[in-house]
């Protein structure tokens, strides 16, 4: 029984027909005399075809389900959601959920507890690179709009700066009291 999801096993092509992609890069255009036309440059201008509905739906992310939201707004919301969640999880909450250590880590946040506080471990490098990559993706998909760029950049700074070694065990917060020193 043939599958409806897979293409047929044999396909036929017209040998004289041009491939679909050749309409954008056609250097074999022959004029009178059967000679190839001359190019004034070794570089060619490639005109990207407009995105199809299928391509646009493939690029959709969670916030695209909100009615009336643009691609730029949904990428910025995705970036902001990750940054806020990451900041709360790694830098705002202190202590550990288990009580077997006798309170040794009560004044440390999760970032300071990873790899016993050692800097530049593979785990910390990966966790530092995730917000940077997400910032670059959101900047690209917001088409480098200056408003979205500033919002995404400030959100990224708010998460990346606490991860840097100079801010290890340094506290700066508007919403919580100063931790008690023992």
Describe what is shown at a glance.
The chain is 37% helix and 0% strand. It has 182 residues and is mainly α. Mean pLDDT is 75; it is low at 22-26.
Write up this protein.
The chain has 182 residues and is mainly α. It has a domain at 55-167. Helices cover 37% and strands 0% of the residues. It contains five helices and no strands. It has helices spanning 53-58, 71-92, 110-113, 122-141, 146-160. The longest helix is centred in the middle third of the chain and has 22 residues, at 71-92. The N and C termini lie far apart (73 Å). The model is unreliable at 22-26 (pLDDT under 50).
Set out the fold topology.
Layout: H1 53-58, H2 71-92, H3 110-113, H4 122-141, H5 146-160
Helix pairs in contact: 2-4, 2-5, 4-5
Please state the average pLDDT score. 75
Would you identify the regions where 5 or more consecutive residues have pLDDT less than 50? 22-26
Count helical runs: 5
Work out the helicity level: 25-40%
Task: Characterize the main sheet.
Answer: none
Give me the count of strands: 0
Radius of gyration: 27 Å
Q: How large is the share of residues in beta strands?
A: under 5%
The general outline is elongated
Order of helices and strands: HHHHH
Kindly name the structural category: mainly alpha
Ends distance: 73 Å
Please describe the structure with a list of short key phrases separated by commas or semicolons.
182 residues; mainly alpha; 5 helices; 0% strand; elongated; transmembrane; transmembrane helix
């Amino acid at each position: 029984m043939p599958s409806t999801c897979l293409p047929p096993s044999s396909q036929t092509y017209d040998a004289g027909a041009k491939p679909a992609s050749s309409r954008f890069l056609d250097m074999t255009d022959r004029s009178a005399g059967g000679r190839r036309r001359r190019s004034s440059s070794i570089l060619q201008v490639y005109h990207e075809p407009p995105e199809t509905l299928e391509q646009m739906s493939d690029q959709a992310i969670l916030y695209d389900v909100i009615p009336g939201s643009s691609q730029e707004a949904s990428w910025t919301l995705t970036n902001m959601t990750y940054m806020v969640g990451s900041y709360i999880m790694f830098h705002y909450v202190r202590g550990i959920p288990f009580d077997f250590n006798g309170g040794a880590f009560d004044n440390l946040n999760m970032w300071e507890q990873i790899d016993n506080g050692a800097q530049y471990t593979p785990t910390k490098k990966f966790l530092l690179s995730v917000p940077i990559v997400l910032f670059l993706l959101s900047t690209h998909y917001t088409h480098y709009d200056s408003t979205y760029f500033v919002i995404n950049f400030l959100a990224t700074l708010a998460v990346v700066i606490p991860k840097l070694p100079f801010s290890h065990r340094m506290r700066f917060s508007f919403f919580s009291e100063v931790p008690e020193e023992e």
